[in-house]
Write a structure and sequence with these properties.
By secondary structure, the protein is an alpha+beta fold. It has helices at 15-22, 26-34, and strands at 4-5, 11-12, 38-44, 53-59, 62-68, 74-79. The longest helix is centred in the middle third of the chain and has 9 residues, at 26-34. It is globular and about 35 Å long. The model has no long low-confidence stretch (mean pLDDT 87).
Length: 80
């Protein structure tokens, strides 16, 4: 899994990868997104984590967190 930047500089992730990590179907993820029930948070790394980013995604009862390097490569992850 990796993050990619869009033309505006926003991070993008493949919904198939994200749904699998959340333990839900892509259709359910997309439906929850259309209803506004998906939240995301991006926290930039500090100090020893400089250059890394923590992404937290929550969908109703499922949540996932990933740590990415500055190139957008997933370093570690966990379900919350």
């Amino acid at each position: 899994m990796r993050l990619d930047l869009d033309l505006r500089g926003s991070w993008l992730v493949d919904p198939r990868d994200l749904a699998a990590r959340l333990g839900i179907s892509v259709a359910y993820l997309k439906r929850q997104m259309s209803l506004g029930h998906v939240t995301s948070r991006l926290d930039p790394g500090r100090d020893e984590d400089e250059g890394r980013s923590r992404i937290t995604i929550r969908v109703v009862t499922a949540a996932w967190e990933g740590i990415f390097d500055r190139e957008g490569v997933l370093i570690s992850e966990r379900r919350l």
